[in-house]
Specification:
Elements lengths: L3 E2 L5 E6 L13 H20 L2 E12 L8 E11 L3 E11 L5 E14 L11 E2 L3 H23 L2
Parallel strand pairs: 1-7
Antiparallel strand pairs: 2-4, 3-6, 4-5, 5-6
Keywords: Hydrolase
Protein name: Acyl-CoA thioesterase
Pfam family, one: 4HBT
């Protein structure tokens, strides 16, 4: 099975916040942002595996600030960890101003599982971490995985 670099599956998407994306307070609806995050994470995982995938969990969905109508929202997803059949993807979300400055509004970690042709979990390509930042993300992912396992055992 082929190994892949973090950069091989990097995804960046851009959305304009439109009236249908707003909640009753005039801000980007959290559910819409969660959908966009899940789509980006899925694209990262599909690029890494070249297989069908499914979302298993979302961790650390932190809403840092709001986005409003006509804001340009940029989502950047990258692979942070790969297990045997599962993967973790970090998705950072920004509001981009007219001069190109990006301010963070959200960070999420999404766990996905690769599916074989039979619809069951299947092995995924290994991840090559090259930079110190990529290696730090890998270490953080191991800790997040431990926390997910603990929550699952405790019924959360």
């Amino acid at each position: 099975m082929t190994e892949r670099k973090v950069a091989d599956s990097l995804v960046e998407t851009i959305h304009m916040v439109r009236p249908q994306h707003l909640n009753s307070a005039g801000r980007l609806f959290g559910g819409t942002l969660m959908q966009w995050i899940d789509e980006v994470a899925g694209l990262v995982a599909k690029r890494h595996t070249h297989m069908n995938i499914t979302t298993a969990s979302v961790d650390n969905l932190n809403f840092l600030r709001s986005a409003f109508q006509k804001d340009v929202v940029v989502l950047i997803g990258k692979m942070t960890y790969v297990g045997r059949t599962s993967m973790e993807v970090r998705v950072d979300t920004y509001v981009e101003s007219m001069d190109g400055v990006r301010k963070p509004i959200n960070r999420a970690y999404v766990t996905l599982v690769a599916l074989g042709e039979d619809g069951n979990p299947t092995e995924v390509p290994k991840l090559i971490t090259e930079t110190p930042g990529e290696k730090m993300e890998w270490e953080g992912a191991l800790k997040r995985r431990e926390m997910r396992d603990l929550r699952r055992k405790e019924g959360f």
